[in-house]
Design goal:
Length: 458
């Protein structure tokens, strides 16, 4: 409380009445509280209370200013996964196509964009809240909307993260009006990927999708008009499952970042910048887009072209133990050996891998790829977490990789073999199957195989 910078003012009459001596005045114009004493106890207490209140207010204001300053400069909590699977965490200070800067406990770290797989932000996802309809664009962006109309030249949509926007019809690949389920998923994917020369009106009949081919002219809230062999036909909107427009193409060589929003929209951005409290994006299909900082969930620096196999859902129902009287507890584990609680990396040869698949012999995994990928890349070999016990049992397996039932790769691996890099052609493959068959004398004992950094590439 000594020498506080509080200006104390009083009148001469009040000072004479209460016998208050005028204290020494400092160079800053303030009265030093230690330079005077009040002879009237009541007045002295009153002035002490006033000084205490003023001091408390000053401290609160100062603290509030510091808090606001700190809050305005606080970064976004972010987790970065590199292409080699190693993680980075911190607060996101800046992000462009070329680099990401994180503020960590040990200082700032700049990471080159070409070494990044994905940046995940602590924004909770709210799938489905953007709208039931889904639009896929020529650059492979996909957005969910509540309304969709077209005058034949321009598409007008609203809802979701982008509010009301207009998109040239030539940039729209397809739109789905109704919800998708497993019974028609494959057929819908086939229609979308057929590169048709005509537009298609797709109609659902039970568990079957049928279509009418022609040239779509207008789309209103109640009807879709299509020109079929010089005849103009109109179909009620409520009976239409979706629309597929004549083949659209976008330059595939352009590097993009796939920006995923909290509504599960995906914008393929050719430029990305974090500017204050907003994201500024440029998309070949949507043009310039601005999004609130909190609406972005993740940024895939591979543009969605590269996915870890461990991140893709799979069916392992056909897995079977090599010995009927010795059931396998875990056939597969993502990104770490089974039984380690996810804390240990995969160990293939002398190299550790933070991303990949661990598989016990007898494992059979089926992935639905829907012709979206052209290549599988991985480092294949035994997981050597328990290598000291392996010489006794000499574990051996056969790795088999199938595409739509056709064998794409087959090879036997002994526990002591060097890791083998895989590059498997997946062009036009709808379903990928990876099988690990027991081939050793131990019939399952320590037959632990792994695919490190297993990725599928579009």
């Amino acid at each position: 409380m000594r020498n506080l910078p509080v200006q104390v003012l009083w009148s001469r009459r009040f000072a004479r009445k209460n016998r208050i001596p005028v204290g020494r005045q400092r160079s800053d114009g303030c009265i030093s509280p230690s330079s005077f004493r009040l002879s009237n106890p009541t007045v002295e207490k009153e002035w002490e209370l006033r000084l205490a209140c003023v001091t408390a207010i000053w401290i609160l204001v100062a603290s509030g200013s510091l808090w606001l300053t700190a809050s305005s400069h606080a970064g976004i909590p972010a987790n970065v996964t590199l292409l080699n699977g190693s993680p980075r965490s911190g607060e996101l200070k800046s992000l462009t196509m070329d680099s990401v800067v994180l503020t960590t406990d040990i200082g700032e770290e700049q990471i080159a964009g070409e070494s990044i797989m994905v940046v995940e932000l602590n924004s909770p996802a709210r799938p489905g809240s953007g709208g039931q309809m889904e639009i896929r664009l020529a650059d492979q962006s996909s957005i969910r909307v509540s309304t969709f109309e077209s005058d034949g030249t321009t598409v007008s949509v609203s809802g979701g993260d982008l509010a009301e926007i207009k998109i040239p019809v030539r940039q729209v690949s397809d739109v789905r009006f109704e919800a998708l389920d497993d019974k028609i998923q494959t057929r819908w994917d086939d229609l979308r990927s057929r590169n048709a020369r005509d537009d298609l009106i797709v109609i659902r009949k039970g568990d079957v999708l049928d279509y009418v081919a022609g040239s779509i002219s207008t789309v209103t809230p109640t009807a879709v008009t299509i020109l079929v062999r010089d005849r103009e036909l109109s179909a009620p909107r409520e009976k239409i499952f979706g629309l597929v427009f004549a083949s659209r193409s976008s330059p595939a060589s352009i590097r993009r970042i796939a920006v995923r929003t909290i509504h599960d929209d995906v914008i393929q951005a050719e430029s990305v910048q974090l500017s204050g409290q907003q994201w500024r994006l440029t998309s070949s299909s949507l043009g310039e887009v601005t999004l609130p900082q909190e609406s972005v969930q993740s940024l895939d620096f591979g543009g969605g072209r590269i996915r870890y196999l461990a991140d893709i859902p799979f069916d392992q129902s056909e897995s079977k133990s090599p010995q009927e009287n010795a059931p396998v507890v875990w056939f597969v584990s993502r990104n770490s050996p089974s039984g380690t609680g996810g804390r240990a990396p995969l160990l293939i040869g002398q190299q550790e891998y933070r991303k990949g698949l661990w598989m016990h012999s007898g494992a059979s995994l089926r992935f639905r790829l829907n012709r979206e990928y052209t290549q599988l890349r991985a480092m294949a070999g035994f997981d050597l977490t328990h290598v000291t016990r392996m010489p006794r049992f000499e574990p051996k397996v056969r790795l088999v990789i199938l595409g739509d039932g056709k064998e794409l790769y087959s090879r036997e691996f002994l526990w002591s073999d060097n890791p083998v890099p895989l590059e498997i052609n997946l062009t036009d493959v709808r379903e990928l199957t990876i099988r690990v068959d027991s081939a050793g004398k131990g019939h399952g004992i320590l037959e632990h195989f792994a695919l490190g950094d297993a990725q599928v590439i579009q």
